[in-house]
Amino acid sequence: MNSIAASDAKSYRWALEQLQLQLQIKRYSLSTQRSYYQAFRAFLMFVYPLPLHHVGNLHVYKYHQEQIRKKNISRSTQNQSINAIKFYLEHVLRQDKQFFELERPKKVEKLPEVLSLEEVKLILKSTKNLKHKAMLTTIYSAGLRIGELTHLKISDVDSQTMRIWIREGKGVKDRMTILSPLLLKLLRDYFRAYQPKTYLFEGPSGDQYSASSIRKVLQRSVVKARIRKKVVPHTLRHSFATHLLESGTNLRYIQTLLGHTSAKTTEIYTHVSTKKLDEVRSPLDLMN
Length: 288
Fold this sequence. Notes:
mainly alpha
């Protein structure tokens, strides 16, 4: 906060430090910690030099109105900013949850991009590097988030029960998902070739493989496969869920495998699946 003199910014620095401390204590992901910190810092820059105990709902409203008017921030960015401020009020200042009420922008309900089985096959076939193929196959085969893949340890792959354990996934919850026999064979080939020590997929220095590198790996394979859809690692997770649904897997089981708290989150795949829709005939065809 370069524009704030050190002597005047003590309470502001304390607020940021306490926000970061509470995020760490509550085991929020590093990406969420960074996002909340930056969002709250931007809000503090807006209200400075007002004493923090004078900041109220009106300032929060004005700040977000200005952000929308001047920067045209997205709904997700606004919601993240609100969540950061709420976190400070509720977990640092210990305010009651009803203390801070702000109308949230409605989230645009967009259907996720999904690949066909053939498109997934083309992507994996286009991935020649054994390690890269193993990573992308694991994401798709087990329906993982990219952060869950990078956190996987060798011990999380249980070949006895044919399960993969996800430790402290989203919402700091453990869960297990399926281990395909085909994936297990691929992982064994990969393990013999690369000999990872702790994490299933390790970077050059032995730490976790970076998420940004995985995105680049996938993008190269998508280009090689000549697929023109916008494909990111989460697209493979969406495709996993949709293909399970289309193969007849109960939605409740899919919810468990994905680690969704609410069934409504999983139900979106019923809108994405086209298998049953392909069987529906137009009434025009009934005229023949």
